[in-house]
Each structure stands twice: as C-alpha cells, then as structure tokens.
Amino acid sequence: MQPTPEILQVAYRTMRTIRSFEEKLIELVNQGKLGGFLHACIGQEAIAAAVCAHLKDNDHVASTHRGHGHCIAKGVDVRGMMAELFGRSTGTCRGRGGSMHIADLEKGMLGANGIVGAGIPLATGAALSAKLRKTGGVGVAMFGDGASNQGAFHESLNMAANWKLPALYVCENNGWGEFTPTEFVVPVKDIAERARSYAMNAMIADGMDFFDVYAKAGEAIARARRGEGPTLLECKTYRFMGHYVGDPLVYRAKADADEWINNRDPLKLFETRVTSEGLLAADNLRSIDEEVTERITEAVKSAQAAPFPDAGELMQDVYAVG
Amino acid sequence: MADQASQTREPREIPTAFAIAEALRIAMASDPTVILMGEDVAGGGRRPEGTDEMGGIMSVTRGLVGDFPSQVLDTPISEMGILGTAVGAAVTGMRPVVELMFMDFIGTCLDPLLNQASKFRYMFGGKARIPLTVRTVTGAGMQAAAQHSQSLYWMTAGIPGLKTVIPSNAADAKGLLLAAIRCDDPVVFCEPKGILFLSTDVPEGDYEVPIGKANIVRAGSDVSLVGMGATVGMALAAAAELERDGISAEVLDLRSLAPLDEEAILTTLAKTGRLVVVDEATPRCGIASDVAALCVDKGFDLLNGPVRRVTAAMCPVPFTRVLEEAYMPSTARILEAVRGLL
Q: Are A40 and A70 in contact (CB under 8 A)?
C-alpha cells in the first residue's frame, strides 16, 4: 500500500505538529508555565500518523497517558489541546481533563487515559458498537508494551478475536514500561506473539518507519472493515524522552538512547526517504515546518489569553440529568 | 510526634518519602519474608553503564534493590496480578509489601483486596494469616487530574477484614508502616501527596505507631478539628489562625481509618462540644460521614452544635488549578466551618 504525495504531506504535517507541540510544552514546563502530569511521545510520531492516515471521524481511537500524538493525528485541534494543558475554559475538555484526559468524541478520539491498559477494552467496545450499528467503522487501541501485561489486554483480545470485531490493536513497543526496561518484565521477544493465544492476526512493523506502519496498518484496517476480524500490530519504537516531562532519566544509559535519537528519528527517516525518492521536495517540508511552528506559537498565545473556568463550574456535568 | 524521646535528642528532619524508605529497609533487614513488589520499585538501573534505579514514580524506594536484591521485585504493569500474587504469597508465609502506584489504580485490582485478602481469615474459620501491606499514593493538589488524584481510602476502610491507615507526617509514616508490615492482617497504607515531600523530625531506628490509635497533635478546648493525612496540616494551620482570634482548637489526627479510634473522637468531643472533621475524600459514604455519625450516635449528649464536614466536592477531580482548588478542602474552608459553629 503506497501512500500518495497528498497523504505524505498530511502525514508529515501531523508528525511535525506532534513533535513541535511536545517540544513547546517541554519548554513551557521548564519555564514553570505548565503544570500537571505530562508524558511526551517524541520518537513515536510515525505510528500515530501512519495508523490515523487510514481512519475517518467515525473510526474510534482509544489512547494512553502518552496521548498527545494520537489526539493530533486523529484530528483534535491543537489550539484546544494547548488550552487544555493550560487549564483554560477554551480547552478541548474545558480545562477539566488535562493532558491525560484529552478526548474529542466528534473526532472519534475516545481519550487519552490515565489508567494503563484501560483504552484497550474501550476500543474493543467501539469496534463492537461499529459492528452492531453497521457503521463500517473500526475501533483502534493505541497502547504501550507495558499495557500488554494487563489483564484488560488479554481479555479484550480474546473477546475481539472470538467475535471477529473490526478492531486494531496497535502496540507501541518503546522498550520501556515507565522506568523499567520491557525485557525485565516480559518473557516473550515480540508482543505480537501474544496474538497467537487468541488466534488473532499479528504483524510487526518498524515503528520509526512511517511507510512500514502505513502499509501494515492499512492492511489490518482493510481486513477489519471487510469483517475478517482484528489484528495485533506491534510497532517497534523508542521513547526519546523520559516517562514524564521532568523525568531525571537516571535509569537509562544515555548512549543507548542517543543511538535511537541520532539514527532512528522517524521524522528524519521520513524526510530522507521522501526527498531521495522525489515524493516530496525539501522546500515543501520546510514550509510545513514553518506553518506548524506558527500554529503552535499561535496556540500557546491564544491559550494564555483565554480565561480559566469559573470556580462555580465545579459541579457541572457530574451527571447528565439532575 | 510519634516519639517522646524527641525532646532529648537532636531533631532529624527528613521527608515522609525517606521515612517510608527507612521503614522498608528496617522491615526487610529484620525479616527475610518481607518482600517489596510493584511497578518500578527498582526500575531500570541494572545495566552496567552507571545508571541508577528510579525507585518508583515518587523515587520512594530508590536504593533499596541494591541492599535487598532478592526482596525487591519489579513487576510488570499488572496490578491485578501483583495484588493477587501478593495475597497468595501472604497466605503462604511471606510478608509482602505492594506498591500500588496511585490509589486510583485500585480500580484495576480490587478483587484480591475485596474478595480475597479481606475475607480469608474469617471465611477459613480464623485459620489464615494475611500479612499484606499495600502502599499507595493518595490525594489531589498536583494537577494530576481525575485518575491520579483520588482519595479512595473510604472504599478500603469500608471493607471488613481490611485495615486502612494514613499518616500525616514523616515520623508517623515510618512507625505506621512498620506496624502495618508486621500486622497479620491486610493493611492499606496511604501516602498522601500533600505530605510525601514534607519533612518532620523522625526518630532513628525501629519503632511502631500502633494501628487503631488516633493522636492529639494540638490540645485545645473550644472546638475539635479531626483530620487525617494531609488535612491534619490544614487543621493545624486553621488552629493557629483561630488562636489569634482567641479560639482554642484541638486537633486530632485519626492516623487509622479502619479500625477507627472511636474513643479518641468521643474524648475530644467531650472536651470541646464542637467538632469539624476534615477529609480529602469525596463526602458520600466516607470517613467524615462516619465520624459525624459516631458523634451523633454515641456522642449526642456531648454536642453543643452540629458536626461539620469539610471534604472534597462530590465530583471527579478536575485538572485545572482553579477548579482543583475549589474541589479540595482547605484551611480557609475549615475556618469558615469553625466560625459557623461558634
């Protein structure tokens, strides 16, 4: 499945937006302008961009605590996201959710999530709903290697395979469950192996290579839409930053990280490929960079200018009725 | 506060997080069946290139794996597995201490506590011992939002067979944790965010703070302020403010939520006749309501006015600072409650 230049352009804009959005928020945290628990997905942008390139608004994505990239790739407005991080009333969730709970149901984004593994059954439920309502939509769970050790993962995969749900399980295996190397706590070499227990289709992609993820996610999603059941797609990737913004990173050898950061940056790999194959011009990419920088700068400005919610709103929306 | 001997020695102020680590160190050194299990309790750091382990999300357990390599077990992110395994180990001769990163995560692993650990001793005719301790971070105030900020101790305190304790300072944290680990019942040990990095004088060495005993942290005669965990500090601040207005407030630190020290609550009520209870948790079905009910039920004749509850709001914990502040109890809200009583 070869992406068209139009798709590539959108994908690059998505990846660059994720990168710039998170670089900006790290800068803002360092300046003491942002609070709360923030988790950066820098290094993992290609996966969000490639998977979501195949999705429409009536396809649903359930995300994780490391969810900014999934939100952006699924079309959530960065101005609303930035305002959310600043806790403003103009935020995606009116300042109530914060980074770990950004959700936009109209865009098919079921939310970042503060509970590891919790999104997996939610996406399974979205797939069940799509199947029963015959929407043609799919449910996509984005999660880390850590979440694949949760019961929720195994229970969901079993149900989805048994019911042949239109679901895609995207495991972003970044080598770290918070501060613990994956191999310390997972006896299998590939998370994809776990699909076999559920007679589920499985694939492994290079999570740093947009093209590889794009092709494999496309195949899996097409299969799901045809009613042929779910797929577990493991994407091998790396978390360039710490577990959270501000993580002292004492537990990780810098040389190991640098190896990935210097040689396996998904944005750089993408640029090398599209320019060398003449798919997109470097000028084109630079003008996207500029446009993205402007958008992020504007998002910060408008967020900072926006009002905080009124304290009197505290008890609104606890219930739909009464 | 835990130690009368503190008058006769140099004070040693350390953060609650360090006091907890000291208790774990003492417990593991004195009993090889004590094991520490949890996500990242070591965490990384076992590579040769001069890396250091993380020691959990709050770095509370940093440095322990080096000294107790076979007693500190990093687990996968598998709360149900961790808790269930710990219950199984506890009932067969180990004395596990589990770190449940945030109490909010109890949603993923309630069964081992609700239906297993809490019931074994009773169901099995008194024959089982479940020396399990679950350490878990509670409370709001760090903009950690709806799934990392809850004070859910009312849930565990409401389950017969479980004990639940919550220290308000570093010295009590150390002593209560040692008592919890050595207790043959399952104990939930809450670590409120509001006190984890506050320092108080902590005695050296091995000592226990008894489970089930509240503590008068400030004597007074006009009104009783009953707190737990981080709200004890709020109550003390309120008491200092009230003193300037000539109002003498007594502050009682519950320390143990289950069992509840009813005698201590009724004793302070008898002294002052007025009581305000301050709880970081939501108001329904909670500790504040229990204390209020106790005052009405067993202390009706002692009351010179209504019992006031100062609690969090009955809504999920909001992210944005403005709403989070409105959500949480505070010194200002305690003062307002007290002034409405006098």
A: no
